[in-house]
Amino acid sequence: MSTIASISTAPGIGGIGIIRMSGRDTFKILNKIFVMKNSKDIKEISGYTMKYGHIVENNRTIDEVLVSYFKSPKSYTTEDMCEINSHGGTVVMRKILELCLKNGANLAEPGEFTKRAFLNGRIDLSQAESVIDIINAKSEREAKEGIKQLNGFLSKEIFEIKQILLEIMTNIEVSIDYPEYDTPNVTNVEILEKIDISRKKLEDLKDSFDNGKYIKQGIKTVIIGKPNAGKSSLLNAILNEDRAIVTEVEGTTRDTIEEFVNIKGIPLNLVDTAGIRESHDIVEKIGIEKSKKLAEEADLIIAIFDSSQNFTNEDLEILKIAKNKKSIIVLNKIDLKQKITSDNPELKDLNKNLINLSAKNKNGLNLLFEKINDMFNLNEINLDNDVVITNERHKNLISTAIKNLNEAERSLNIGMPVDIIAINLKDVLHNLGEITGEEASEEIINEIFSRFCLGK
Ligand code: GDP
Q1: Can you tell me the mean pLDDT for 82-104?
Q2: CB of 456 closer than 6 A to ligand 1?
Q3: What is the pLDDT of residues 369-392, one digit of tens each?
Q4: Architecture of 127-208+388-449 per CATH?
Q5: Which residue's C-alpha comes closest to atom 14 of ligand 1?
Q6: What single DSSP character describes residue 453?
Q7: Is the separation of the CB atoms in 287 and 295 below 8 Å?
Q8: How far apart are CA 240 and CA 249, in angstroms?
Q9: From 222, 224, 228, mutation site for ligand 1 pocket: most ligand atoms within 8 A of C-beta
Q10: Of the candidates 214, 391, 208, 220, which has an alpha carbon nearest to the alpha carbon of residue 297?
Q11: CB-based burial label for 293 (10 Å; 0-12, 13-18, 19+)
């Protein structure tokens, strides 16, 4: 493959910058632009070593650099590679990249280094996709999931399922080729058993997606309550919580701002925080209609009430919204004399998780976090050992695989010829192959890598 080059560090000014090259001519090109101190022939330089020297053009020094050497096949792409560590100024980095290009390298497309790692067989497609997840991770948990996937956790699981399916295929082939040796019932029972085992594994993977989604995108949380119930006080208390890491992201619905908060490992994606904050002078704040709309797409609703006042009609509307969703009822302002308690008949009937707290004094916040943890089984996710799906593409393919597996079972149960079942199973194998990439079309592969950043 041709030799590619690109700036791999983020655009802008930094302490150091890295220009990366990969491909057959890497060292030839490097040789033309890099003057190493105590110069050595490339044959004498081992992989995973660094050399000090200068990047030069026509005897003029461009920068003082350190160059890392990676020799094929032991590199990110499996090709000969180098990383030039320059000073982190934009001009210097651009100049070095330009020199690489002038001397024969092509400018790398976004994700092309990782694409090469995939095309050269070092990692499979699901592993390549995890690289994007690691780069974009907003929480430690998410990054950890990405690393696990990069290490092949999902690939291994898919491989095991494929092995079981291939065993069934072998059984079927044998019974097609040598029908005289076959006892159909035995074969059928065995096939059904194996279908069951693989389906269970696929279903576990599919179920893990919701957990994975929370890890990746945060638990989509909407705070609703009538004006003055304490929404913005609660929001601020949550955001100011010790160790809360806050990242603001644009919401999926227009005009909303989502705030990704990671508190003690609980990933929350607080929706429409702007609506809560900015509308301070507006009497309505978040109106009932808007609350209803936001609630529709939420994973969790925090419905907050001023417990020092009796319920109003508006409160009852809020309760109605919370009723049919995963929600927590917060009785706020417990520092004041309470008029509403958990014994209130409206609340008793509702049968929901209920917390008493004071948003103003930040009293009882921990109870809220504990409750969320319990409700979403966050502690039950064994991040070190369980395979967790975090990618929608993988989930959809797994769902299709399960459908095709059910089809195989149905065909078998209604006495279809075994070659029909073999066709169903081939579909399942195809679905799984799309996850790991052997069966993915070029379009899908290109689409995936186009989402990468430059230099990765
Ligand atoms: P929002 O309209 O729902 O966003 O409510 P705010 O958070 O703006 O609070 C309305 C008023 O209630 C403000 O004056 C807050 O200081 C007050 N408030 C909020 N939480 C508490 C609390 O826990 N105790 C007391 N005493 N007052 C509170």
Answers
A1: 96
A2: no
A3: 999 988 887 766 555 667 888 889
A4: Up-down Bundle (1.20)
A5: 228
A6: P
A7: no
A8: 17
A9: 228
A10: 220
A11: middle
Q: Is the CB of 115 under 6 A from ligand 1?
A: no
Domains 4-108 and 217-380 agree in fold: no
* Ligand 1 nearest atom to the CA of residue 233, by list position: 7
For residue 254, is pLDDT > 50?
Answer: no
Q: How far is the CA of 233 from the centre of ligand 1 (A)?
A: 6
DSSP for 177-210, written as a single string? H-GGG--HHHHHHHHHHHHHHHHHHHHHHHHHHH
pTM to 2 decimals?
0.69
Residue nearest to atom 24 of ligand 1 (CA): 333
Q: Return the structure tokens found at 383.
A: 């991040």
For every residue of 82-135, DSSP letters joined together read EEEEEES-HHHHHHHHHHHHHTTPEEPPTTHHHHHHHHTTSS-HHHHHHHHHHH
Tell me, using a 6 A CB cutoff, whether residue 307 lines ligand 1: no
Distance CA 303, CA 295 (A): 10
**Largest Cα–Cα separation, the chain:** 86
CA dihedral for 193, 195, 201, 206, sign (positive or negative): negative
Class of domain 4-108: alpha beta
Tokens 């638990």 belong to residue: 219
Fold of 217-380: Rossmann fold (3.40.50)
Going from the Cα of 33 to the center of ligand 1, the distance in angstroms, rounded, reads: 65
Q: Where are the domains of the chain?
A: 4-108, 127-208+388-449, 217-380
Q: What is the mean pLDDT of residues 28-50?
A: 96
Answer yes or no: is the C-beta of 227 below 6 A from any ligand 1 atom: yes
**φ, ψ for residue 78 (rounded to 5)?**
80, 0
Q: Which two tokens stand for residue 52?
A: 């000090």
